[in-house]
Write a structure and sequence with these properties.
Blueprint lengths: L2 H7 L1 H6 L9 H12 L1 E7 L4 E4 L1 H7 L9 H7 L5 H12 L4 E9 L2 E13 L5 E10 L1 H29 L3 H15 L4 E7 L5 E8 L3 H6 L2 E3 L3 H9 L3 E3 L11 H5 L4 E9 L2 E10 L7 H61 L7 H29 L8 E4 H18 L3 E5 L6 E4 L1 H17 L6 E9 L2 E8 L33 H11 L3 E5 L7 E8 L23 E5 L3 H13 L3 E5 L2 H11 L3 E5 L7 H9 L2 H5 L1 E6 L4 H10 L3 E4 L4 H13 L1
Parallel strand pairs: 13-15, 19-20, 19-21, 21-22, 22-23
Antiparallel strand pairs: 1-2, 1-5, 3-4, 4-5, 6-7, 6-11, 7-8, 9-10, 10-11, 12-14, 15-16, 16-18, 17-18
Helix pairs in contact: 7-8, 7-12, 8-12, 12-13, 12-17, 13-16, 14-15, 15-16, 18-19
The structure holds adenosine-5'-diphosphate.
Length: about 675
């Protein structure tokens, strides 16, 4: 322990050892107090023009103690940027205003902060006769305040950066914006953000600031190991380069050529993998503080996380898109073999099988094929909706008519499940603007579900009424009901309440998703209610009502009676089974039929056979269906014939293309008996 420590910190102990107590007079105490508090005083006698500085005051200003002083010598010590302010406040003090200011001074080239306070004395005429003032060295307080402010701004900057990076889907734009802000906060002049280029061991400039475009173009690509960023990417380690103007390091040569003196580059890492680099550089100073480097590190970390998040989101979107494409292809491929199977079954029905059991087996097979066709259609629909390919053919409709059509289509299901149907029609006509086919499909889905999920002997009730500006249609059943926790999810794609349920009539969990999407496309919504398992369910549709007078009743577009078959029908399909079964079915319906398995032979057959009706597959090798149709239409006989496109693709785009190629009708495979009748009827009418 040192002697000084005893004397300062423990006077009693010093005395007990017999040392004499320090004898300090009032002046010494005063001088020590000034020194400890870093407060000096000055005294001005204006009459004699004498300015006296205390020892501490002289120390603060770096002046010789006791040397004569003047206001001018004081003003010279004041920081040039603060001189006008100090002078102005002094003049105000001479007019009697309080003098209490904070400003900078420069002592031996070092900037310090002082606080000045003064009490001035005036004679009865208001002339200055003298004054007393103090000067306090507040450099420490000012640096603490500055550090505090810097920390507050840094925290704001980082939390703001994190929030904006998290919310944004345009990381490139946000990185440029945020890094420019960070650059300004850190008093830097340039920043560079490189990301991994597609080829290995190379970076691509993603965002930058502080250099002209032409210079940026020169560093658009940067190989690993080249310049600071290339080395950081190669070694995955931060580089802080300082005093660059005095260095001869090849790595810093590039940024040195931009006039950068201090440069710091961080690798952008995600899950231990390099995704790029982020660097900041200052031209006006040779070093960075540790705090500044920490800020750069934190920003790099946030940018890396945001880039990774976007990459993952993109991967999810890609996966969803691939799944949609796969579903569309799957549905399309499943449809192709169904076409000949369905036509074959319909043909078998017309042939005399001999065995009395045959019709029942055929019926069963037809039912199952119909079921598969429905599932495949659902898949097809959902992929069309998800890719935005469904277009509604809107017209004014009476809801009662839509319900009637839906009931007609669903009746076989309800009857088969022995379910009693009750319909409460609206009291007055409810007119909405809608696509009759799609709205019928929506209500059909609800009715079919009610049939599927209600035990035999149960009841289903359909009700329609107006509520405010909306038409409401509800389908209520006494079936299995839906547990409350699953109720909000039944409209989600592939949602199924109980996957273990006996699902002889089951679907793929698509129907309700279609319902909600189609209703939403009509500007309405669909909701589900149920008091729980075993308590039945209620599905409610709400559609905007048409304004009075704008409505007109829907027309029935029924198929009509079987028309007499036109004389000659040509079937062109590269799938031999499909062509064969279709031909046999048409023959059984009384037509004269020829089949061809490609476009070129189809045209030949047309020219020699001159049919009135042609069923034409679209996807064929060589001449496809579109081109074949165009060529057929170029001859007078071809112009007169009815051309029917028969294809797995039912989307709007394909329909538009078939219309353009000259087709009269577009049918999706497998064509039902009704479709064929419709084509025959159309050809007959032409
Ligand atoms: P699915 O093809 O499985 O019937 P949906 O999308 O039509 O698909 O229905 C989704 C799920 O909602 C069904 O699996 C079923 O669990 C439940 N659900 C739909 N309608 C009813 C209903 N009327 N009663 C009880 N549950 C139903």
């Amino acid at each position: 322990m040192t002697e000084g420590a005893v004397g300062r910190g423990d006077p009693d102990r010093g005395r007990s050892e017999g040392a004499p107590a320090p004898r300090i007079g009032p002046y010494e105490n005063f001088a020590r107090a000034q020194k400890l508090g870093q407060i000096g005083w000055w005294r001005l006698d204006s009459r004699q023009n004498i300015l006296t500085w205390s020892e501490e005051n002289s120390r603060i200003f770096g002046a010789e103690p006791g040397a004569p002083q003047s206001y001018q010598t004081f003003l010279e010590a004041v920081h040039p940027e603060d001189r006008a302010y100090v002078d102005e406040r002094w003049m105000a003090a001479l007019r009697g205003e309080p003098y209490d200011i904070e400003h900078r001074i420069i002592v031996d080239g070092v900037v310090k902060w002082v606080r000045e306070k003064a009490d001035l004395e005036f004679d009865e005429h208001g002339h200055l006769i003298g004054g007393f003032g103090i000067t306090q060295d507040i450099t420490d307080r000012k640096s603490a305040e500055k550090a505090l402010q810097w920390n507050v701004r840094r925290n704001e900057l980082l939390s703001n950066t994190a929030a904006r990076l998290l919310q944004s889907s345009d990381v490139q734009g946000v990185v440029t914006e945020l890094c420019t802000e960070v650059m300004q906060f850190l008093d830097c002049d340039v920043f560079f953000n490189f990301v991994l280029a597609d080829s290995a061991n190379r970076l691509r400039l993603n965002a930058y600031a502080g250099i002209p475009e032409a210079q940026a173009a020169e560093i658009e690509n940067l190989d690993f190991g080249v310049a600071v960023c290339g080395c950081v990417a190669r070694d995955r380690e931060r580089i802080v380069a300082e005093h660059i103007s005095c260095e001869e390091d090849v790595r810093t040569a590039l940024v040195k050529s931009y006039g950068v003196q201090a440069y710091c580059c961080h690798p952008l890492m995600s899950q231990r993998k390099l995704i790029g680099t982020l660097s900041f550089g200052a031209k006006s100073r040779p070093t960075f503080t540790l705090d500044e480097i920490e800020v750069m590190q934190a920003v790099s970390h946030l940018v890396a996380m945001a880039m990774e998040r976007l990459k993952m989101e993109q991967a999810l979107r890609d996966a969803a898109r691939r799944k949609d494409e796969y579903l569309a292809t799957l549905a399309h491929e499943l449809r192709n073999p169904l076409a000949p199977i369905r036509s074959g079954l319909q043909l078998l029905r017309r042939l005399d099988g001999g065995d009395p059991k045959a019709p029942r087996v055929q019926e069963m097979m037809e039912r199952q094929v119909d079921h598969i066709v429905r599932l495949v259609d659902d898949l097809m629909e959902v992929s069309r909706i998800r890719s935005g390919k469904i277009e509604l053919k809107m017209e004014p409709l009476d809801i009662a008519e839509v319900i009637r059509q839906a009931i007609e289509a669903s009746e076989p299901f309800l009857d088969a499940s022995r379910i009693a149907l009750m319909v409460r029609p609206p009291e007055q006509p409810l007119h909405v603007e809608g696509d009759p086919v799609r709205l019928t499909q929506v209500i059909c889905n609800l009715l079919n579900n009610a049939a599927k999920y209600t035990e035999p002997g149960g009841r289903v009730e359909v009700e329609a009424y107006a509520s405010g500006a909306e038409a409401v249609v509800s389908v209520t059943d006494t079936g299995v009901g839906i547990p409350p926790d699953l109720l909000p999810h039944v409209f989600e794609l592939f949602a199924q309440v109980d996957r273990t349920r006996d699902r002889a009539q089951g679907g793929l969990g698509i129907g309700l998703a279609l319902v909600r999407s189609l209703v939403a496309m009509h500007g309405g919504d669909a909701t589900a209610e149920s008091a729980g398992p075993g308590q039945g369910s209620r599905f409610v549709l709400r559609l905007p009502l048409l304004a009075q007078g704008a409505a007109r009743a829907a027309t029935d577009v029924g198929v009509g009676e079987v028309p007499p078959a036109p004389e000659r029908v040509l079937v062109i399909d590269d799938n031999e089974d499909a062509a064969l079964s279709m031909s046999m079915l048409l023959r059984a319906m009384g037509a004269k039929v020829r089949a061809a398995n490609d476009g070129a032979r189809g045209i030949e057959a047309f020219e020699s056979f001159l049919p009135g009706l042609v069923f034409l597959d679209l996807g064929m090798p060589g001449l496809d269906g579109f081109e074949t149709a165009r060529r057929l239409r170029s001859s007078p006989a071809g112009k007169a014939a009815t051309l029917v496109a028969l294809t797995g693709w039912g989307g709007e785009e394909t329909r538009r293309r078939t219309r353009e190629a000259g087709f009269d009708l577009h049918m999706t495979k497998p064509a039902s008996l009704e479709d064929i009748k419709k084509a025959l009827s159309f050809a007959r009418a032409c």
